[in-house]
Amino acid sequence: MTFNHNIIIPEKIQSDFEMLYSTVTGSDGQKCTADQMERHLFKQLLKMGAQLMQLFFDLRSQAYPREEVINQKGETLPYHSEKSRDCYSIFGELEINRPYFYKKGAGGDSPLDAALGLGEDSYSDFLRELHDELGVYIPFGKEVTIIERLLGIGLSKRCVQQFIGSDAADVAAYYEPKPPPPVAEEGAILVVQADGKGVPIIKGSASKDKVRLKRGQARSKKKAVTATALYTIQPAPRTVDEVLGSLFNEKQENPRSSERSRPQHKQLWGTLAGKSAALDRLQGEVDKRTGGHIQHRVMLCDGDKSLQAHLARRFTDFTLILDFIHAYEYLWQVASALYGQDSSERQAWVLEQTRTLLKGQVNSLVDHFRQLAHEKGRTASQRKILQKVANYYQNNQAYMDYATYLQQGWPIASGVIEGVCRHFVKDRMELSGMRWSIDGAENLLHLRAVAENGDWDNYHRFRKQQRQKRLYQSDWPEEIPLPSLSTLVRRSAKKSLITGSPDLQSDLNCPYGQLPLAV
Question: Three-state DSSP class for 12?
Fold first, then answer.
């Protein structure tokens, strides 16, 4: 058994490095632009990385014992032969030769796969996680183009979709046992927010098979993502005038907005599985964060009656608040109907009605709008919008005691969940021409939640641990600290480099084997 790579690669790495060093320090390096040199070094260092990774695999294989092994069933397998498998890494395509153990009737095994922590397919975890992370933010077609241009690795969109699907499989299992944030970092108000946002889902084959659809037909339909947000925040009592000043950009004598705390340990989630499934998961996270440090519990949503009912049944000890911004926007609709978009009276009228709304005088507004609707001279469209808003306020009156909420220092606007629906869902899943399968959308939502919640590295560590148990019934190999190269020229050494310090100059002119790569 021979390993020619062990002889060829070290010599080639040294030769290639000397070539790069000569390029940087030689006459060519004194003529090219910084951009040209940077791009050249990047591409060449990727090639050198491929050589080093191949050397790593060869050395691991060479060092692995060829004595008989015991498989997972307790059967003894003798060494049989060498078998190879492909590995597509960020450096390109590599080959892993490893010992294969086999016994007739007992099957075969390559235990080096477990020692290396390899997955079922041929793609390295680094490469697939790079695709995953780009894929949760930008369309798959764009991200494969970017990676191919930078790394020279061209994968199909279908391959990336498979990465997303398999790598999202453990997200629910990751969050279930995850401990709550430290109490010292939490606020006194536990806040739940929920909303719905439709995404385009691919229809069945009936419409897909048609070359040209009839007028009004579409190849996709909308299905609602139930989005949730959970966080804590410190109470921030405000006055009506302070809120009005913020809404209408009025200067305040003693502004307190800069003193207000921000949401702590915000956790976002989205699912196509329905309201009950979304709130089941949310309930588990709420239970984790409930304790003596929580003094208030509030939940915010818009006027969706079904969602309000689900929240009220699930979180009986929470106070349900109608998102103030939704209620406020209805006032502008009424003002536009009464005065027109360009009227100077419009803003003044909205200001006064908003003051009434913030004081919690919802009945007064309902009566006022209905009186306006019955005045002589009202158009049909004016009456319609006035009655619509009056009914909306009346139906949600129990959730609109804004005066009390402000006094308690509670949040009254569902800006967090609105941001979730816009950024978390719409900005990624409703781009032009996008249509999703239900499974594809759900997988992306799960990984997108991991990214938005700041759990990316921890989750993928957990994912690899779970895969190791499934494939090899063993723990993930212990990761040991590896030495890192230090920067050759630090800030403190810049002056010496510019002035031509003899010591630094001798370092730069030293032979390859004595280069200060870790100074």
Answer: helix
